[in-house]
Design brief:
The complex is a heterotrimer.
Chain A lengths: L1 H12 L2 H17 L6 H12 L4 H18 L1 H7 L8 H12 L3 H34 L4 H12 L10 H15 L2 E2 L6 E2 L13 H17 L20 H23 L5 H15 L11 H17 L1 H7 L5 H12 L8 H4 L1 H33 L3 H20 L2 H19 L5 H24 L5 H4 L1 H31 L1
Antiparallel strand pairs in A: 1-2
Helix pairs in contact in A: 1-17, 2-4, 2-17, 3-4, 3-15, 4-13, 4-15, 4-17, 5-6, 5-7, 6-7, 6-13, 7-11, 7-13, 7-14, 7-17, 8-20, 8-22, 9-20, 10-18, 10-19, 11-12, 11-13, 12-13, 18-19
Chain B lengths: L2 H21 L14 H23 L16 H25 L1 H15 L6 H21 L9 H9 L1
Helix pairs in contact in B: 1-2, 3-4, 4-5
Chain C lengths: L1 H6 L5 H10 L12 E6 L6 H17 L2 E6 L6 H9 L6 E5 L1 H9 L9 E9 L2 E6 L7 H10 L2 E5 L5 H13 L3 E5 L3 H9 L5 E5 L4 H5 L3 E6 L26 E7 L4 H16 L1 H9 L3 E5 L1 H21 L5
Parallel strand pairs in C: 1-2, 1-3, 6-7, 6-8
Antiparallel strand pairs in C: 3-10, 4-10, 4-11, 5-8, 5-9
Helix pairs in contact in C: 2-3, 3-10, 5-12
The chains are: A mainly alpha, B mainly alpha, C alpha/beta.
């Protein structure tokens, strides 16, 4: 109760908090709608502006950018099949499918609504339970991350679009791509051809932009006109009561998984977005619609992204340990103003923390209002004549990929991934397993080896960690379940034929 | 030879090449038991095995999947691939020219070229879209987001002319 | 990597910026350039970026020049080194050096390496400390070594093939104990594993662990410098505890080859003056930095030795050929 009072007073005393919440959200939406601009870059660009600002307003500005970014990245994902950020990649699948059916406004409405719900859930936890929850982050050991990664990879079994064999091939290919770069244990360069640009590996966003956006450009080139159903209604359509009821389960899944992801440092939003997507399909009443424009396929990853944008701040505030690059920039924002996040933050800077929390709440409103405003022009833009739209997407992708590391080599690499994506389509090999491999490969490998270093090569270490055991059991269960279903489906097909 | 068989063949070749590269990773004193080449080698084996399985399956029962044309491409896949190649070439041309011509100019040309390639007519409107589009992207990426996009030869040229 | 860089404290930047408004040229020998660009490979908010941004306003006052910061990210410094190597040696562009630029040069074939740059002066040492969880049984570095000798130690370094890893490997070699050295992708990740006692000890920069230290969750066992640091007068060095390993993580400046002597002299004077500045001193002390001015004549040798030592380590351990 005192906390609420303190939050209200802080906003009244510092109206700049409201301005900062709106400005940050707007900046995040616009900045991260550009492919290749990550939330952390968008936030870092604002750092210099916060030097002279009021401390609470400064950190609110940065945190709101993070929230806006999670939503902004989904706009191009839905409209032009180009994920703006890593975590928007799962939204591409059903979001773009809906846009192709002329339901762009509805898809964006579901995205906005789900991000908002996830963010509300995350902010509620942030406000009430930051300190106890921060301790949860400490429970995760390297072996636990292996369990998490295996759970993510088990998704491959159910997203292989009919051919398990090809799905597994794509998954392994993704894992191979993730091995490029500095070896996590020895620091040796692997598969880098001695090129400094490849030292830090191939950025997942580059692979996603290549596989989704550039491949799509290649495919669209031969189509006389954008399939004509795509003249999208230029208005945002928020989901009605029926739709809201339908989305409930997938959003709940997204919230919970996003929450766990936010607490565990080193994960990154893309992993939780994909896991949520898959779990939503597993629990959906209409799993067959996934991949063909299922609203639930948008709701789950978006709710997860919204939740991550708030819960990722919990270990940063409660422990002073940032779990992601974005959280690290926010940590920088606190430090600039002489506040050290960590166990003592709440007692030493109570007022500012309350101002910060108040700002997080204001940014939720900002998200709704700005999300609403920005969508109309976006939908208008994608309704322009096809040759202009395609030319602009190409220009946007070429500019955005360069922005990841200021590297033309990366632009060439993204084009190569576009060709790879085209080849995969040609051979009817599903791309989603490959993306999963790229996203999870490094986490699984580095933590697997780390755990074995700790145990001196003894695999029993994985059975000693309850989190790892739990996650591995769940993965095994899912794997067996999808295999049974796979072979049953094949049997029924055979019987029908 | 059907398509799945070819896919398997390529997969196998990839696995072998990747394995060869993995076994050339040097041995380090800092290495753990698994080593930097440990998982890559396992991945290579997995891809190889899966590829062989795919080839076997393609030989035993060639499914109709391999021959049927994609509904998205009523015109035929060869034509589609050729059209796609054009976009790829524009992209490659951008990567090659942008270090010389600089970001805004090259981008304007790329936009105009791509629009022309997609069936736009050379008109004042198309030129305007090219220039305006490049200007907007320059504004967002270089001005707002401080991305140091390639400047090209211009700054050096101007400095030389000044002297 | 980025996370650990970003973790570095930024305290006091606001103060500096306010000061910069008042800062105007005072008396100083005429510098050939009005504006000097200081480049770093770290992104805004990262370690070297913060170092430069804090330094800039004070330099303006001390040297009577405008200082601008440029972030040349990409390839862990490879791109920045290439730009620097090609720049005109007119005193207009310098690069913030850290051990990273040596590691990057050695680990990959970069267009230009640290050998293609002219080390200018050193400014700070960033003390590395060995720490453990406050609940752990280890009270001294000796306890850790004894434990590792009796069974098997679990030690953590933030990044593979890094200075921190090198220190731990040397500690192992000097004491002859068995210890698993676990590497992470950044200091935060490793800190968690020290806090939950998966690891016996971790090694990192003093500034990085400040929040947990203040909250009493971590305990520093040893400083890896050759002398105790001012911020931790009661913490003995590793050397004092019988483990003869020291490390000097440096923060300095480098320029293009052929930088003229008058420019070098101006910087030698300027940096010494800045380090004395009480306003700046307050900031860098809080950040856990140790003033460590090294003049140009000695700095080239210092960097060279550091490079040779690192190269020997990487070669002996088989990371590079």
């Amino acid at each position: 109760m005192n906390d609420i009072l303190a939050m209200v007073t802080s906003v009244i005393n510092t109206p700049m908090i409201i301005v900062a919440a709106f400005a940050g959200t707007a900046w995040g939406i616009i900045g991260c709608a550009m492919p290749g601009i990550s939330p952390s870059i968008a936030m870092a660009l604002l750092l210099p502006f916060t030097y002279g600002a009021d401390p609470a307003a400064a950190v609110v500005l940065l945190a709101s950018t993070y929230l806006g970014a999670e939503y902004g990245g989904s706009i191009p994902a839905i409209l032009i099949r180009t994920p703006g950020t890593n975590s928007a990649a799962a939204t591409v699948i059903d979001g773009y499918a809906m846009k192709e059916q002329g339901k762009a406004g509805e898809a964006l409405g579901i995205s906005l609504y789900s991000t908002l719900l996830g963010a509300i859930f995350g902010v509620a936890l942030l406000l009430t339970l930051t300190q106890p929850l921060a301790k949860v982050a400490l429970a995760f050991q390297p072996q636990s991350y292996v369990g998490l990664g295996i759970l993510g990879l088990s998704v491959i079994a159910s997203c292989s679009e009919g051919s398990l064999l090809k799905g597994l091939m794509a998954g392994v290919l993704g894992l191979m791509i993730a091995t490029v770069g500095t070896d996590p244990v020895t620091g040796i360069n692997r598969f880098t051809f001695d090129d400094a640009e490849l030292l830090s590996g191939i950025p997942p966003i580059l692979v996603m932009v290549g596989i989704y956006a550039i491949t799509n450009l290649f495919e669209q080139a031969s189509m006389p006109a954008w399939r004509q159903t795509t003249s999208n209604d230029a208005s945002l359509k928020m989901p009605g009561p029926l739709m809201r009821a339908r989305l409930r389960v997938s959003q709940a899944i997204g919230c919970v998984i996003g929450f766990i992801e936010g607490l565990t440092p080193g994960g990154g939003g893309a992993i939780s977005a994909f896991i949520s997507y898959n779990e939503a399909r597993r629990w959906s009443k209409h799993p067959e619609e996934f991949g063909k424009g299922s609203p639930e396929g948008i709701a789950a990853p978006e709710a997860s992204n919204g939740a991550v944008s708030a819960t990722a701040l919990i270990p940063m505030l409660g422990l002073g340990i940032p779990g992601s690059n974005s959280a690290a920039v926010l940590l920088g924002g606190f430090l600039i103003h002489g506040m050290t996040p960590g166990p003592l933050l709440f007692t030493k800077h109570y007022d500012i923390v309350m101002g910060f929390f108040a700002g997080k709440v204001v940014s939720l409103f900002a998200l709704v209002i700005l999300g609403y405003i920005v969508l109309r022009p976006c939908i208008w833009l994608v309704n322009r004549p096809k040759h202009y739209l395609m030319a602009m997407i190409l220009a946007l992708v070429l500019s955005g990929v360069y922005a990841i590391h200021n590297s033309l080599f990366h632009v060439g690499l993204a084009l190569a991934f576009g060709v790879l994506g085209y080849a995969l389509k040609y051979f009817r090999i599903p791309v989603l397993p490959m993306i999963l491999g790229v996203v999870l490969g490094f986490m699984v490998e580095s933590n697997y080896r780390r755990a074995l270093v700790l145990s001196d090569g003894d695999h029993m270490i994985f059975l000693e960690d309850p989190i790892a055991v739990g996650l591995l059991v769940i993965s095994a269960g899912f794997l067996i379940y999808s295999l049974i279903r796979h072979f049953r489906d094949m049997a029924t097909q055979k019987a029908a034929a | 030879m059907n398509r799945d068989f070819v896919a398997g063949l390529i997969g196998l070749a990839l696995a072998v090449a990747y394995y060869a590269m993995a076994s050339q990773i040097q041995i380090s004193q800092l290495a753990d038991e698994v080593g930097p080449e440990g998982l890559p080698k396992i991945y290579a084996w997995m891809l190889g095995a899966l590829s062989v399985l795919l080839m076997l399956r393609a030989l035993i029962k060639p499914t109709e999947l391999a021959t049927h044309t994609d509904g998205n491409h009523p015109i035929g896949e060869t034509y589609a691939a050729k059209r796609g190649l054009g976009i790829l070439l524009i992209g490659i041309a951008y990567v090659i020219t942008v270090p010389w011509l600089g970001y805004p100019l090259t981008l304007a040309i790329v936009i105009a070229l791509a629009a022309l390639y997609q069936g736009g007519r050379l008109s004042w409107q198309l030129t305007a879209v090219g220039i305006l589009g490049a200007a907007v992207l320059w504004f967002v990426f270089v001005f707002l987001l401080h991305i140091a996009q390639p400047e090209g030869i211009w700054p050096e040229l101007i400095e030389r002319l000044r002297r | 990597m980025t996370v650990s860089h970003l973790l570095r404290p930024l305290i006091g930047v606001a103060l500096c910026l306010q000061l910069s408004g008042m800062a105007q040229a005072q008396t100083a020998p005429k510098y050939p350039k009005d504006t000097v660009m200081l480049a770093t490979h770290s992104s805004p908010g990262g370690g070297s970026d913060v170092f430069l941004r804090e330094l800039a306003p004070h330099l303006t006052r001390a040297m009577g020049i405008n200082v601008a910061i440029e972030n040349i990210s990409g390839g862990s410094g490879a791109k920045a080194m290439a730009v620097l190597a090609k720049a005109k040696p007119d005193g207009g562009l310098f690069y913030a050096t850290t051990p990273t630029f040596i590691y990057t040069s050695l680990l990959s074939k970069t267009e230009a390496s640290y050998r293609d740059l002219e080390p200018l002066v050193n400014v700070f040492f960033d003390p590395e400390v060995v720490y453990t969880s406050a609940d752990s049984k280890f009270q001294t570095l000796k306890d850790v070594i004894d434990h590792a000798r009796a069974s098997r130690g679990k030690w953590g370094a933030a990044n593979p093939a890094s200075l921190e890893r090198q220190v731990l490997e040397r500690m192992k070699a000097v004491t002859g104990v068995r210890a698993a050295v676990v590497t992470f992708e950044g200091g935060g990740d490793m800190q968690i594993n020290v806090l939950n006692r998966t690891l016996d000890i971790g090694i990192g920069e003093l500034g990085e662990i400040k929040p947990q230290l203040e909250a009493g969750k971590l305990r520093i066992l040893a400083v890896m410098s050759d002398q105790r640091v001012d911020q931790l007068p009661n913490v003995p060095t590793a050397k004092e505890q019988g483990v003869d390993v020291t490390v000097r993580k440096f923060r300095g400046l480098a320029g293009p080859k052929g930088t003229p002597p008058d420019v070098i002299a101006a910087w030698e004077a300027g940096i010494q003056k800045v380090l004395e500045d009480p306003a700046y001193k307050k900031i860098y002390m809080e950040n856990g930095l140790q003033p460590a001015f090294i003049r140009h004549a000695d700095y080239a040798g210092f960097i060279n030795d550091f490079g040779k030592e690192t190269e020997a380590f990487l070669k002996n351990s088989g990371v590079i050929k």
